[in-house]
Design brief:
With 265 residues, this protein is an all-alpha fold. Helices cover 66% and strands 0% of the residues. It has nine helices and no strands. Helix 4 packs antiparallel against helix 7. The two termini are 25 Å apart. The N terminus is likely disordered.
């Protein structure tokens, strides 16, 4: 192991991650996203690339296409916690989205959303049910555009791989980065699918516990919103992919295969 690799897994990496954590928390833009600055545009992508590489994940130095860039922008909402009051988890997920931290560091506690939803004071239980329905509906409306974006990326990746495998004009040094980019793209789609499923579980947990704690007729509206989200999420998680993670969506285990970019296999 090189000295750089040892540092990347030790205090230096943790210090870098903490610095970025504090920076992203101190400067936010629309919807809580980090503003476009030197950290988010230059530093975070570079740190993320090397962090992912040292974890043994597929990492490509290729520039993003417009659709690939947009796919990552659209994915951001779904991989973040559903409620803005989950401040620490939002920072962790933001760093995972930048590939600085592994996706496994995200919280998988479906009670997080309920705790954030009911934290603090509020005038009426109706506002909690309304917020739950609004969050589920907002997710539903954004899944369709993400799926359309993902389909364009997958189609382009099929063309990419055909050209890489068949054209004698493609330099050998281009093959590995091309394959890594396909893994990155498909891994991101699978990650979003997983986190959408987690959001649905979190919403159902919150609804059940709200009904127990504060029964209300507003629960019907929230239940319908969650059901509509489930119906919209189905086609996303069934869309045909290239299959770099195998037929069941898991990472390949053959010798020499690399772990997925962000997907928690």
């Amino acid at each position: 192991m090189t000295q750089f690799a040892r540092l990347a897994g030790g205090p230096a990496a943790r210090a870098a991650a903490l610095s970025l954590l504090l920076a992203t928390g101190a400067c936010t833009g629309d919807f809580g996203r980090p503003r476009q600055d030197i950290i988010s545009q230059v530093l975070a992508p570079q740190v993320g690339f090397w962090s992912a590489t040292l974890r043994g994940e597929a990492a490509s130095h290729f520039r993003f296409t417009d659709d690939e860039e947009q796919l990552r922008d659209r994915a951001w909402r779904f991989v973040m916690p559903s409620h803005e009051k989950s401040i620490f988890q939002r920072r962790v997920s933001d760093l995972a989205h930048a590939r600085i931290l592994p996706a496994q560091m995200q919280s998988s506690a479906k009670s997080d959303y309920f705790n954030a939803l009911t934290g603090g004071s509020f005038a009426s239980q109706a506002s909690r049910y309304a917020r739950l329905a609004e969050d589920a509906n907002a997710d539903r409306l954004l899944i369709g555009p993400f799926r359309a974006n993902a389909m364009r990326v997958v189609a382009a990746d099929r063309v990419r791989m055909r050209a890489a495998e068949s054209s004698p004009e493609v330099a050998p040094s281009q093959i590995d980065p091309a394959q890594a980019r396909v893994v990155e793209n498909e891994g991101l789609i699978l990650w979003v699918c997983e986190r959408v499923g987690f959001r649905i579980e979190s919403y159902r947990y919150a609804l059940a516990n709200l009904v127990v704690e504060m029964p209300s007729r507003e629960a019907i509206r929230a239940e319908r919103a969650i059901m509509a989200l489930e119906a919209e999420a189905g086609p996303l998680c069934k869309m045909p992919l290239i299959g770099v993670f195998g037929g069941d969506g898991r990472a390949p285990t053959g010798e020499g295969d690399k772990a997925p970019v962000v997907y928690k296999g």
